[in-house]
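Methods, example record. To illustrate the input and output format used throughout this study, we show the complete record for Type II secretion system protein J. The sequence lines were provided to the predictor; the line carrying structure tokens was produced by it.
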Amino acid sequence: MARPVRRSRGFTLIELLVAITIMALLSVGAFNFLSGTSRTADRLNARQADLLAIERMQSVIANDLAQWVDRPIRDELGDALPPFVLSPDGALEFTRRGLSNPLDKPRSDMLRVRYELRGKQLWRLTWLTLDRLPGLKPVESPIGPELERLRWRARGSNVSRIEEVWPPTSSGATGISGAVLNQGAPAVLNLEFDAPPYGEIRRIYLLPDNDNATG
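The corresponding predicted structure is encoded as:
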């Protein structure tokens, strides 16, 4: 006697719906995990880029200050400017050596450097000609990340006294044009700035002594 053929049992509609729902939930979970991992990687890369920008900014400033030289200049109007100036608006300007001369041309190796905060961006300005001619434009370049605040403070031979401008007002300075030309640079320069999300960062620069320069 022949045995009846047993039919294989398939999935019911409810079982298929349950399986599809489980797969959908797993897919959503996997997508959220990968998306979160990608966002975390993007944030870490952005933080790393900001830290590198801060490090580079401080390195450029340190290199400029290490080569400052006691050489006054004249501005576009012919007024004398001291070799090292910290103005009331927070801008820092000074003369430095180190201008490269690969072609060995007969010219000075000094240049004028200025740092100023525009909005949230620090800018570095350089003049390759010390005594400026009317219409002479500096080379401008942004440096560092966005900053909420930036402040320079100077300390002279009396390091316990903090100066907000340089040359100090006690020397008779009434701004850049009225500053004393032979004051030189401070002994110590303090830099404070806020770089979100890292908060306040401080740096102290010790400036070398320099004799009067020509060129």
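Annotations derived from this record:
Helices lie at 13-66.
DSSP finds one helix and ten strands in the chain.
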